[in-house]
């Protein structure tokens, strides 16, 4: 399946100082990600899936981070949470 045929995944996060490291970590782990900054909101989109790795977020934050903290940052999303455990969150479409 080519990238052109994959459905778009989207995550909208509150734009804040606390979420800046989270957004940068997501960008690091998803090179195909596109970001759009709106007032108070950052829209992240990618074809197929978006992965959020706990270790990457911790490296950016400089502290421990629990994946449950993601709930404090997210405004909305397009797709399904196909995986959510202590180490990783994956948003994708389940076919």
From TrEMBL:
SUPFAM superfamilies: Monooxygenase (hydroxylase) regulatory protein. Gene3D superfamilies: Monooxygenase component MmoB/DmpM. It comes from the Bacteria. Belongs to the TmoD/XamoD family. This is MmoB/DmpM family protein. The lineage of its organism: Bacteria, Bacillati, Actinomycetota, Actinomycetes, Kitasatosporales.
């Amino acid at each position: 399946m080519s990238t052109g045929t994959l459905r778009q995944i989207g995550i909208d996060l509150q734009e804040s100082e606390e979420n800046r490291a989270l957004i940068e970590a997501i960008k690091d782990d998803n090179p195909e990600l596109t970001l759009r900054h709106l007032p108070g909101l950052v829209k992240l989109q990618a074809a197929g899936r978006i992965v959020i790795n706990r270790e990457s977020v911790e490296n950016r934050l400089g502290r421990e981070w629990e994946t449950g903290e993601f709930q404090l940052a997210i405004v909305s999303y397009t797709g399904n949470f196909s995986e959510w455990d202590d180490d990783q969150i994956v948003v994708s479409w389940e076919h």
